[in-house]
Specification:
The protein is an alpha+beta fold. The chain is built from 12 helices and 15 strands. The protein is globular. The protein starts with a helix and ends in a 9-residue tail after the last helix. One of its GO terms (molecular function) is oxidoreductase activity.
Length: 382
Amino acid sequence: MSPALVLEVQTNRKEEEQVESHEYHEGVKQLCDRGLAKVPRKYILPASERPFISIKDGATNLKLPVIDLAQMQGPDRIHTLKSLSKACEEYGFFQLINHGIASESVLNMIQAARKFFELPFEERSKYMSKDQSAPVRYGTSFNQNKDSVFCWRDFLKLSCHPLSDVLPSWPSSPAELRQAVVNYSKETKSLYLILVKAILESLGLVETAKNIDENDSCDHLKEFEDGSQLIVANCYPSCPEPDLTLGMPPHSDYGFLTLLLPDEEVKGLQIQHEGKWVTVEPIPNSFVVNVGDHLEIFSNGRYRSVLHRVLVNPFKSRISIASLHSLPFNSMIRPSPKLINDANPGRYMDTDFASFIEYMASHEHKNKSFLESRRLTRQGHA
């Protein structure tokens, strides 16, 4: 082959890859709407990172610890707090029942998210942004600016604090989306604050829910009340070859707590437990709650954020809604001083949101890489 012909072939291949790359950045939903019989190579994971989907997946299903909010707020609070502490230490996840959020609010949120992803691409694409801190962002994969292999997921991220500032920038279509998210975000924020108080108590930072240390814990609670909240609607379209890709790669959540509303009909969430990937068995009318990196830092490693990932389904699309909560964006995340002593020194660097945003913008997200970058000492049990 002549040099000129080689150059022509290379140029044509590069142009094809640029066209493909542009298509991938439009999202999985757009690709699937055009019709797909195979997974494009941009989404195919290395063999060692692909999910092993067993026919007998019942053997790899996991029933998470169940925390009953009604019991936590009743006379059985002390026992329930012990169960909460054990779940955060041993699993990093739990399922929350009797949470008190109206089923109407939950259904309206799911339906509004589903309708958004069903909008024409031209409407959805109005909210595409490469700005990690944008108050509204429609996108695909995990970090599409850095991911070498894309994951099988589109998302809509909505910043929720303060609502009065961000609401005008939210999508105006579908018509019911704004009100559905406002109602849902307020209810999940209230639920989150109830859980924060319980976690502070379980860590020994407050004596009882009604007898709070004025000097330290009140400051903590005030910060949480003014804290950040991000609603993330995830869309995982059905996939022709689900054993080649993932809806989301192994990762931990950056915040304090995540309240996840899973798809009750289509399983997909997996957590790493005792060295194995296990599929979470969802309980109807419950939330899946998980420890984030900020809570691991705040608890000085006592409560651990845990790696999790998402499988995709060959027959059905899947929708989930995550509400991610933490301290305000201008806060410094550090181990609670009450949890540090000579026998248990601080294990993490002070961390702010700016560092996280900068890290995410400049790195391909891998497992718990950001949290590991903040670690001061190596833990023998890590």
